[in-house]
Amino acid sequence: xxEKKSEVKKNExxxxxxxxxxxxxxxxxxxxxKSEKEIFLENFLNIKENETINLNIVFTIDDIIIDKRSxxxxxxxxxxxxxxxxxxxxxxxxxxxxxxxxxxxxxxxxSNFIKEYLVNNGIKKERIKILASGKVYDKKIEDKDKMIEIxxxxx
Length: 155
Description:
It is a single chain. By secondary structure, the protein is of the alpha+beta class. Helices cover about 50% and strands about 15% of the residues. It has helices at about 1-30, 35-45, 70-85, 100-120; strands spanning about 50-55, 85-95, 130, 145-155.
């Protein structure tokens, strides 16, 4: 009976050690996990001149209002720009409506909206250019999946 109790106790100790190892491993893995904001800021830190990063900024179909999530991306961009003296260019793209001229107007309106938002939040307007290439998608995309392109002009 003593041997049996000793063996059970030994098994319990081994199981406890295994559980502790698993918990310690999970804690280490949690420390490695980066938040979406950290990844966003890291991507901007690692970008080189003349490279671009695409942001998913949601606009309404006929307006320039953006949603709460999009504002969060812009706040992160503002945080980055306040701590990094770089010059950027903003290009906005729209779904292809069949009328390229209207799409270009809408794209420029959206780019300017983003620029004004950044300027109103403390970023110098001289550091923000507008991409006026008039480029629009030649395919349909979801109405809510609008893209804003941020190009680093000068680091």
